[in-house]
Amino acid sequence: QTFFKYSIPREPDGVSFVGNDYFATADEGDMDGGSRGFTIYHTGTGAVVFSSGSFMDQYAAAIGHYQEGRSGNKGVEPENCVFGTYEGVDYLFVNAERAGLTFVYDVSSPAKPEFKQVLPTTVGPEGAATIAKRNLVVVAGEVDDRGDKMRSAITIYQYSKDVAQYPTLTSWTKDSYIPFAALSGLSNDPKKPNILYTIEDSAYIKSRFFTIDTGKAPALMTKATRIVDSNGVFAGVSPYGDFSVEDLEAMINSDDDTVNIDPEGIAADGTGNFYIAHEGRGTVGDEDRPVESLNFILKVDTNGVILDVITLPDELNDIQVRYGLEGIAYHPDGVLVACLQRAWGDNAGPLIGVYDLAGAEWTFFVYPLDEPESQNGGWVGLSDITYVEGTGATFYVLERDNQGLTDAAVKRIYSIDLSAGITEMATLSKTLVKDLIADDITGPIGGLPFEKLEGLAHNGKGWWIVNDNDGVDDNSGEIQLMNLAVSRE
């Protein structure tokens, strides 16, 4: 937020009494900018005793729930509010329709509400009801589109004095916050056991990667680093095939040398350098989805400055499919291992590429995907790959289908062995490590499986996965950075 507006008309879209002497409105922000928050009034005089200001927008941004495309319109769009008393404490619940959140306030003192937590909802929370006698609150999500993995649902929450389950990742501190969303790959830091790194995908321009401290609860995003081509390394990449000079220029912002890429994987080498996998855009020979970018691996330093660019061999660029580089891992022997999401050309599955940094040479193998098992069809692909220190040549892959909620069927972690002696382009063997659907990892949080489980990593706190919320575009916005119980087999 860079400026304030005063004396802006409110446009209430929901109203609730707060006891006998006050009432609250959820102000969705349609009219002349609106207020994008909620207001509490005295019933006798109509006087405003509290306005939440821009807090709801800002907090949603700090936990990955802000839809940037709504900035010029209604922001998180407060839609409704309901009041209830639980164990003698008065609470107000405010639905944020475009953020997929219900904000919870202690309104024991209506002129000084105390923010308590947010509750993640399904897409488009509209209606809400309190059932205080049963210690429940119920929220109804209106959006239903099976093709976009959104189903209308009623979410039930139970009052408790336990630590809040959500968010699992935040950047909110008393002094500042980092807006983020659309997270993809994960990486550990070989030298810092509590740290994870993640990236945001092409939902945003001026691409960034992030530092996460998993020693905090919830995990705390502590730093955002923009990727910059200060030394002209990326600008020096040679065009190839349908990838033109103009396409490359569109990926580099001339005002500040930041880049507009599609980061899908990240790997830290423990010396301050990172390898970021950029998924190419377009399919060779497809007029509807022409090639606008090749697949690249960018080596960047701790400040995000690009130091090197690694390309795929020309024979692969010649058969590029839009389901490109998705995950990347660093091995301490000076090797990168990257995976394509789906099969290219005549290959029976997506390729796993091993890149020798010293020799600048690629070796490829074929990964055998599971067949689709969803009742709704779809496809299966790879999302991430990671290495765990001390496991030799064993790598771990995250395999998933493109289905969510009750249609999700394949969300699995497998191990693969890339020991020397495997014939190039041979089909690898894989071993199941964890079936995330069968083990019902979302059951303990009262949820259903996410479509896009995109990140997988292991640090001193154990195994982690994270889902991509698509920048809250046709998505509830929920981000679950989950710690898993997984054995290293």
Task: Give a written overview of the molecule.
The chain is mainly β. The protein has 3 helices and 31 strands. It has helices at residues 55-62, 245-250, 314-317, and strands at residues 12-18, 22-27, 37-42, 48-51, 78-86, 89-96, 101-106, 114-120, 125-131, 136-141, 153-158, 169-170, 183-189, 192-200, 208-213, 219-226, 263-268, 274-278, 296-300, 306-311, 325-331, 335-340, 351-356, 361-366, 380-387, 394-401, 411-417, 430-435, 453-459, 462-467, 482-484. A 5-stranded mixed beta sheet has the order 12-16-15-14-13, with no helix packed on it. Strands 1-2-3-4 form a 4-stranded antiparallel beta sheet. Strand 13 and strand 14 form a beta hairpin. The longest helix is centred in the first third of the chain and has 8 residues, at 55-62.
Spell out the key features of this protein:
3 helices, 489 residues, four-stranded antiparallel β-sheet, globular, 40% strand, five-stranded mixed β-sheet, mainly beta
Strand-helix topology:
Layout: E1 12-18, E2 22-27, E3 37-42, E4 48-51, H1 55-62, E5 78-86, E6 89-96, E7 101-106, E8 114-120, E9 125-131, E10 136-141, E11 153-158, E12 169-170, E13 183-189, E14 192-200, E15 208-213, E16 219-226, H2 245-250, E17 263-268, E18 274-278, E19 296-300, E20 306-311, H3 314-317, E21 325-331, E22 335-340, E23 351-356, E24 361-366, E25 380-387, E26 394-401, E27 411-417, E28 430-435, E29 453-459, E30 462-467, E31 482-484
Parallel strand pairs: 12-16
Antiparallel strand pairs: 1-2, 2-3, 3-4, 5-6, 6-7, 7-8, 9-10, 10-11, 13-14, 14-15, 15-16, 17-18, 18-19, 19-20, 21-22, 22-23, 23-24, 25-26, 26-27, 27-28, 29-30, 30-31
